[in-house]
Amino acid sequence: MATNNYVHMNECGLPLNAIEWLETHHNSKAVERRQMIRDLQLRAGSFVVDAGCGPGLWTPLLAEAIGPQGQIVGVDVSAEALVTAQRRSYGQWYRRQVQYKLAALEDLPVAPGSTDVIFSANVSQYLPEPVDTFAAMGPYLTNGGRLVIKDIDFGTMRFYNIDGGLQARVFRAREDWEQLRVDEGFAFEDSWVGSKLAGYLRAAGYEDVQERSYRIVRAYPLSREFRCYLQGIAEWFVCEEAPLLAGEDITSWLHCFLHESENVLDQESFVSEETEFIVSGVWNKRPSATVRFFDMQVAVQA
User: pLDDT by residue (tens digit) across 212-234?
Assistant: First the structure.
């Protein structure tokens, strides 16, 4: 999901929730993300809502999985992201089976009880009340339809050539700060949400909740995209002045990732790992939602 409320910019002035950043992050994990969609075993001809679709990065993967008879509605709260998604799909093989609409996740632009699968990637970390949001999405599903949520849990992130104590202090400070930052005027964020998703879906009324985890490991030498991703994330861990972290730890942490000659990313011993989660649940209740939405009709030039 893209947002117009930029929270943090990396060393290149790139907002980490801006469209360019989302594209870089997505491309850095393309192999794993393609496998995630294959593992869902979506039925050919399914009707799928991509909830929080951002610039449409998952659209071709979903379209490939459901085939040319399937249909996708991409939904986001960012008009800029939807324009980008439409431009990305212009002239592509999947264009005729996709529509993009401006709407909130709780008020999807489809008929109640009409959707086979609602897929939502990297959105749950921004939801202050995820159980309420997931419950509100359920009535848009067919009886037996699935809600599929994908997100990360930064509690699983490790760097094998960085001091373990420093990592622990940086991660703990960020996790604690996310419990406090809303009161300081910042937007809600829970970057440890991945391992909580199964519990949230059960609390929202879904049945047959299933969880898959994907361990993402990278070693030296890194691709350009993954290097950019890691440097951005490293800065994000200590953004907003990292008020719960000692100044010397902030300096040491940034030195590891940004120093010209002592950068850990350039060392042959470098290895990183993190885990992303995909959780699905089945909705077995009758629809009762009232639908209100705005169509996103944008003229796109070739």
Answer: 999 999 999 999 999 999 999 99
Token pair recorded at residue 142: 């067919």
Please tell me the pTM assigned to this model. Answer: 0.89
Q: Which residues of 23-32 are buried (b: 16+ CB within 10 A; e: fewer)?
A: bbbbbbbeee
**What is the β-pairing status of strands 141-159 and 207-219?**
unpaired
Find out whether 137 and 114 touch, Cβ atoms under 8 Å: no
| C-beta of residue 20 within 8 angstroms of C-beta of residue 228 | no
pLDDT tens string 35-90: 999 999 999 999 999 999 999 999 999 999 999 999 999 999 999 999 999 999 99
- The span from the CA of 22 to the CA of 51, in Å, is 15
Looking up tokens 């979903």 gives: 62
Ordered by where they begin, the domains of the chain are 19-155+188-217+276-295 (3.40.50.150)
Q: Nearest CA to 15 among 155, 151, 162, 187?
A: 187
Beta strands, E only, the chain: 47-51, 71-76, 98-102, 115-121, 141-159, 207-219, 271-283, 294-295
